[in-house]
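Propose amino acids for all 62 sites.
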């Protein structure tokens, strides 16, 4: 049988979600910094190209 959730449990989950969203934002900023400084080496397909060093991707479909 499922355990009922209390207000404390819900509050703790919301707080954890908030912390994780902040961590995601931090990691996205780190990735953007890495991609901005990378001297890209692209692997190309007919529809996209992707840097093999940092994962930056561009669409070639216009």
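Proposal:
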């Amino acid at each position: 049988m499922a355990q009922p959730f209390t207000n404390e449990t819900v509050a703790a989950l919301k707080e954890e979600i908030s912390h994780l969203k902040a961590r995601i934002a931090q990691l996205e900023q780190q990735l953007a910094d890495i991609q901005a400084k990378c001297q890209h080496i692209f692997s190309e397909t007919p529809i996209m190209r992707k840097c093999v060093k940092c994962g930056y991707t561009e669409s070639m479909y216009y």
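DSSP finds one helix and three strands in the chain. The longest strand covers residues 48-51.
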